[in-house]
Amino acid sequence: MKRLSTYIVLISVFMTSCDKDFEQININPVLPSKLDAAYLFADAQVGSDYYIIRYESQIPQQIITPFTGVLQGGNHNVWFEANNTSAPFDMLYPRSVKHIVDAIENSKGSPEKSNLYNMARIMKAFIFQRLVDSYGDVPYTEAGQAFLTQTYLPKYDSAADIYNDLLKEVSEATVALDASKPLVTNDILYKGDIVKWKRFGNSLLLRIAMRYTRVDANKARQFAILAVDPGRGGVMQSNADNALVAYNAVITNSNTNTFHGSERANFYLEKPFVDYLKTTQDPRLRVMAVKYAIP
């Protein structure tokens, strides 16, 4: 009995002592707990350009992979399809969604980061419209909150509710952009150019509104009118306004890698797309494709 009592005392001392400075001991002194919102924003931009030629491009009948296997896309209904349909979800949430939500949180309420905050709101809408258009209901209001609020299982929001919020966010954020305030110099798309960001925001707003016409035509019309209003900056005027990521040796295009690699012979332009280009006498067909003679 005496020996048992000794064990109990020793265990109690050990359990008490292990709580001492527990939180401080478990904090990595060299690992940052908060990152610069500008860097998070830039990485979310790069990550938003996900690999699409295996699935999405085949739905509008532009590029097709007519073979069964890992490269097949929207033209097949077999199990390998799961690898392709999940790609946008699996690639956007862990990186772009997480970082853009963090960037918004870390720039909100900061006057010197006003443009960064509103650009991030537009970028978030761009990312989530692609997710909603691909899947319908997806995590939105609680998405990317694991570190910020310890929300590890975000709820799914309805596509209609998400689209409603996208209209609000893009219309508000685009108007709030101000060239007199500090610019975002590490912006990947436009190098902080407010004029082009307004055109991008309004063009995105117009696209969201046009797709909203099947839900509420009157509301869609209201936002479409806002989008094309020159007083708000207007929409894109030419290819110079395109939102694009300039690839280099560090930031590479996964789609291009596939076309240049061993699978390059497995992709074809689809007949409806080619026929449309011919009908409209589109001069780009000559540089987009090559026709092989059939012996």
Q: Mind explaining what this structure looks like?
A:
The protein is mostly helical. The protein is built from 13 helices and four strands. The strands form two sheets. Strands 1-4 form a two-stranded antiparallel sheet. A two-stranded antiparallel ribbon has the order 2-3. Helix 8 (159-176) runs antiparallel to helix 9 (194-211). The longest helix has 22 residues, at 114-135. It is globular, with a radius of gyration of 25 Å. The protein starts with a helix and ends in a 7-residue tail after the last helix. 29% of the residues are buried. The mean pLDDT is 84.
Keywords:
13 helices; two-stranded antiparallel sheet; mainly alpha; globular; 3% strand; 295 residues; single chain
Secondary structure elements and pairings:
Elements: H1 2-17, H2 22-25, H3 37-47, E1 63-64, H4 81-85, H5 87-107, H6 114-135, E2 138-139, H7 146-149, E3 156-157, H8 159-176, H9 194-211, H10 217-227, H11 254-260, E4 268-269, H12 271-279, H13 285-288
Antiparallel strand pairs: 1-4, 2-3
Helix pairs in contact: 3-5, 5-6, 6-8, 6-9, 8-9, 9-10
| Total E-strand runs | 4
Enumerate the spans where pLDDT stays under 50 for 5 or more consecutive residues: none
Q: How would a textbook summarize the main sheet?
A: 2 strands, antiparallel
- Average pLDDT, rounded to a whole number, is 84
Q: How would you spell out the order of helices and strands?
A: HHHEHHHEHEHHHHEHH
Q: CA-to-CA gap between the ends?
A: 97 Å
How much beta, percentage-wise? under 5%
Instruction: Quickly give the structural class.
Output: mainly alpha
Give the C-alpha Rg.
25 Å
Number of helices: 13
Q: Looking at the structure, what is the overall shape?
A: globular
